[in-house]
Amino acid sequence: MKGLVAATRYLTIVPVPGAWSREAPALGEAAVWFPVVGLLLGGALALVDQVAIRLFPPLLAALLTVTAWKLLSGGLHLDGLADCLDGLPGRDSEHRLRIMRDSRIGTFGAVGLILVLLLELAALTELVAAMRWRVLLVAPAVGRAMPALLGRLFRPARPDGAGARFAAGLRRRAWIAPALALAVAAAALAAAGVAAFLAAVGLSIVVGAFFARRLGGVTGDVMGAVVELSELAVLLVIAARAHGMAAPP
Question: pTM of this prediction?
Answer without folding.
Answer: 0.93
